[in-house]
Amino acid sequence: MKQRRIGLGVVATLVALLVALPTLIVIPMSFTGQQSFSFPPESWSVRWYSSFGESAAWRSSLIFSLEVACCVAVLATVLGVMIAFGLRRLPARAATVGQSVVLIPVYEIFLRWHLSGSLLGFTLAQSTVVLPFVVLSVGVGLSRINSRLMQAAATLGARPVAVFFRVTLPLMLPAVLTGALLAFVGSLDEPVIALFMSTPTQTTLPVQMYNSMLQVTDPTVAAASTILLALVTFGGVVGLVLLPYLRRSHNSART
Q1: Which of 14, 36, 47, 194 lies most in the core, judged by the most C-beta atoms within 10 Å?
Q2: Is pLDDT at 144 greater than 70 in this prediction?
Q3: How far apart are CA 20 and CA 220, in angstroms?
Q4: Domain membership flag for residue 13
């Protein structure tokens, strides 16, 4: 057993290094003082971050990405809570079928509605991608809540709406916040759907990075990648901070 744990630790370390290797190369390249990509950099500069800030295309794509991510987090969280709460009240087989439907996103309808390039279109399209994260997170939180607490509130005369907002929602709030964070990070870093939804005048940062690599090969894209990585990392750190509160809430709900 001990040898297996050591072997698993070695494999996990190698995988982590393999995943982190591109990041360890991109970040130094974003601080190069040269006109093109080079590793290791022969000189150091923040000129490409200045280039990012001075470019209207880069700035607008970053701002639009943040707007879409915020809207997606709100919409996906609200829908995810409603779906997870509804699935819990269904019979086991019906809940399984319903969850399977939720986990299969459908995108064609957004193209038929001609929503490409709009904040609403991006929000709806990317919400289909991150919605399963919220449903699963909230579903786990609900499964660990002591149902007798809600029954006790109802027995004392609380209406279903009051039971939900005063008992159920506070108990599963950490799971809701975790799902919202996953939705935000997933939307911020989503390139595939954004590529099909983008227009020449309205696009997200990952798509702008892709387009930049096709047109220009200056290290501004490395600076943009580092900025995006910093935002996603920040979201992960916030998630690690929320995790202890999630566990405490689940433990207290069981008693």
Answers
A1: 194
A2: yes
A3: 20
A4: no
- pLDDT band at residue 43 using 50, 70 and 90 as cut-offs: confident
For the whole model, what pTM was predicted? 0.71
The rounded distance, in Å, linking the Cα atoms of 207 and 201 is: 12
- The average pLDDT across 233-247 equals 69
| Residue 202: domain span | 73-254
DSSP 44: B
Cα separation of 87 and 95, whole Å? 5
For residue 144 the two structure tokens come to 């660990």
Rounded to an integer, the average pLDDT of 83-95 is: 70
17-29 confidence digits (pLDDT tens): 777 777 777 777 7
Is the residue at 39 inside a domain? no
Compute, in degrees rounded to 10, the torsion defined by CA atoms 152, 154, 155, 157: 130
Segments in the chain forming alpha helices (H): 2-29, 47-54, 56-88, 92-102, 108-112, 119-143, 147-155, 160-163, 169-188, 192-197, 205-215, 220-254
pLDDT of residue 245: 61
Eight-state DSSP code of residue 107: -
**Is residue 32 domain-resident?**
no
Q: What CATH number is attached to the domain comprising 180?
A: 1.10.3720.10
Q: Which two tokens stand for residue 35?
A: 């006109």
DSSP letters spanning 150-214: HHHHHHTT--HHHHIIIIIHHHHHHHHHHHHHHHHHHHHT--HHHHHH-BTTB--HHHHHHHHHH
- Position 178: which residue type? T
Burial of 78 (0-12, 13-18, 19+ CB in 10 A): middle
Is 153 contained in some domain? yes
What number is the average pLDDT over the span 190-211? Answer: 78
